[in-house]
Amino acid sequence: MNRERAPKEKTKAAESPKPRQGPTNEAQMAAxxxxxxxxxxxxxxxxxxxxxxxxxxxxxxxxxxxxxDKEATLDQKNxxxxxxxxxxxxxxxxxxxxxxxxxxxxxxxxxxxxxxAIQQHASQDPVGASIMxxxxxxxxxxxxxLGVETIAKYLDNIHLHPxxxxxxxxxxxxKVFQExxxxxxGADKFFQAVGFEKITLSVPEQEDPEEFYILKDEALEKLDxxxxxxxxxxxxxxxxxxxxxxxxxxxxxxxxxxxxxxxxFFNLTTEELIRERRLRAEAVEKITMLRTKAMREKxxxxxxxxxxxxxxxxxxxxxxxxxxxxxxREPVSALYQFVQEALQVDWxxxxxxxxxxxxxxxxxxxxxxxxxxxSALLTLTGDEDIMAGIKEQMxxxxxxxxxxxxxxxx
Length: 410
Hints:
The protein is α+β, with helices and mostly antiparallel strands. The chain is built from 14 helices and 12 strands. A hairpin with a 3-residue loop joins strand 10 and strand 11 (358-359).
């Protein structure tokens, strides 16, 4: 029996949609949080080209340099004791010996002491003192050389042409004189010491008078002296104070490798700070490839070159310890000579071993190149039979006068 399907009811006409409600506040906050998480996820990076790698390295180096500049002062302060107890220091400071007085003075008083010593010497030898001032108190060696050669030319003209009055007189406002001689400290004292006097003279066809150096008659009669002064001026060298080794000997001690250094060993001068910045800037500018292992090692060694001085101790076979102060850039040969001078017998062959039994075979290497800064303990070794024989005959390898003032490491 066929059943007729009931016709489906026609759907009602599409009704207009009801307006949608916006997301709730909670939903908006959740969406914002999800979006933030998505943005924090690292995006896939495209492979970097060689140029991109170089640029990235350069950028990182510049960031390191900037950070280093900010932290340098803090790091340096942290490396030093907040308050220095003189009794606890391994050495009281850096001292220099003035060649004019023989006095040992602290580093920061060295220049003032030398200046004063030169001034005191002027009462005995005014010409020699003025020459010392010219060569010692003016730092620019090229300007000193040029000024000295110009002064010598003035004196040569007088010596070679003593009858010509034009050479007896030097105009102070002359361009050459003003540029080469006037800026030199000590030049005025030299001219007056060798026989010139400063006089103001009128100049023809000129309203204002000018100053001149005029050679005195008595100086004209001693031209050989004038020639000698010129030669001394040309051959002179700056007065240089020598580093005081502050040599001392200590009794055997388990604290031989313990050092407490004063700030003199760490402080960088203005010139050194400028040099460090320049080296860092050059490293950034020259970077055109990834840093190799050798380059990284070189950068590490640069840190060792920041020190100007080093305190070195040498332990002898009998346990006695010899101590001295050195420039960080002095060669190892200076230490060998220092030890040799402390021995009773100057013919004794010996070797010096650095930390970790490192053999110091290349005596031309600097201490900072060997890692022996700002302090280090070394060991003296040699032929055991020879050393035993010396000890049996003399009691010690060290000179008796050193042992008579032996100290105890605190």
